[in-house]
Design goal:
The protein has 248 residues and is α/β, with parallel strands linked by helices. It has 6 helices and 11 strands. A 7-stranded parallel β-sheet has the order 3-2-1-4-5-6-10, with helices on both faces. The protein has a two-stranded parallel ribbon with strand order 7-9. It has a two-stranded antiparallel ribbon with strand order 8-11. Bound molecules: nicotinamide-adenine-dinucleotide.
């Protein structure tokens, strides 16, 4: 038997977060990837990964982290928690300028592939969307400042495609559920406990797409493994979903 093929090296920004932890675990379970996590939080969830504590807003931190990587998964975000949602300066610095730092650092270090975690909300301006696809334009009036910064971040990531040998792709999950979620389901439970869920706005038949975190993570790995300069997905954005949206 021949030697096992060499593992590829990847960096997962935001690897201590909800989606990031799913991605790190799946990358390691695949046996094809060696994983380094870059996060501002020193959460060490996975013994098989290397953990670096750093800040996306510091270019020198990002430069040091991407060095020698075959692929960077840029998952980290300043999430729209109750505490952060109105902090525009933080959102812009992390989600837009931080993403630009990742793109620039990848180009400078000769990293060949960058997978950016975007959001389906980049096309949602509050009106019903039926049959939306990747041809749907960005929302002219995004729902909130966080979404505005996800649009700017996605544009920065895709603009990096083809520059300095870098291939990029953006993935747009809608609502994500699963283990380690600290935002969506816990907020619903908290609101219910406070008696804030007694009323239904509209007919109660509004549809919203929810995707299991493990499926979103799998999409990231498949995208990375299919991505190279000139490949069909390079420079493009893709929605990620479980399938047909179900009423909730
Ligand atoms: P999360 O808050 O659980 O994880 C984000 C991680 O980024 C955290 O571990 C945090 O410490 C890290 N981070 C924040 N600021 C940083 C900085 N300055 N430098 C380094 N690390 C920093 O969020 P999540 O739900 O796992 O989201 C992951 C990605 O998925 C994000 O890009 C988000 O926009 C996208 N997304 C999430 C959802 C959802 O429903 N959760 C839906 C659509 C898109």
């Amino acid at each position: 038997a021949g030697a096992a093929p060499a593992k590829q090296r990847c960096l997962v920004t935001g690897g201590s977060g909800f989606l990031g932890r799913h991605l790190v675990q799946q990358l390691l379970d695949s046996g094809r990837w060696e994983v380094t996590v870059f996060d501002i939080r020193p959460l060490e969830g996975e013994e098989r990964a290397t953990y670096l504590v750093g800040d996306l807003r510091k270019r020198s931190d990002v430069d040091a982290a991407v060095e020698g990587m075959d692929c960077v998964f840029h998952v980290a975000t300043a999430a729209p928690t109750a505490h952060n949602a109105h902090n525009h300066e933080l959102m812009r610095a992390v989600n837009v300028e931080g993403t630009q730092n990742v793109v620039d650092a990848c180009m400078a270090a000769g990293v060949p592939r960058l997978v950016y975690t975007s959001s389906a909300s980049v096309v949602f301006d509050g009106r019903d969307l039926r049959g939306a696809d990747e041809g749907t334009p960005y929302a002219a009036r995004p729902m909130d400042y966080y979404t505005h910064t996800k649009i700017e971040g996605e544009k920065a990531a895709l603009a990096g495609n083809g520059r300095g040998g870098l291939a990029t792709v953006a993935l747009r999950p809608s609502g994500i559920f699963g283990e380690w979620d600290t935002l969506t389901v816990p907020t619903i439970v908290r609101n219910a406990q406070r008696g804030k869920m007694k009323y239904v706005i509209g007919s109660g038949r509004n549809e919203m797409d929810w995707t299991y975190a493990g499926n979103v993570a799998q999409a990231h790995i498949e995208a990375a493994e299919a991505l190279s300069l000139g490949s069909p997905l390079a420079g493009k954005a893709y929605f990620v979903t479980n399938g047909d949206p179900k009423p909730f």
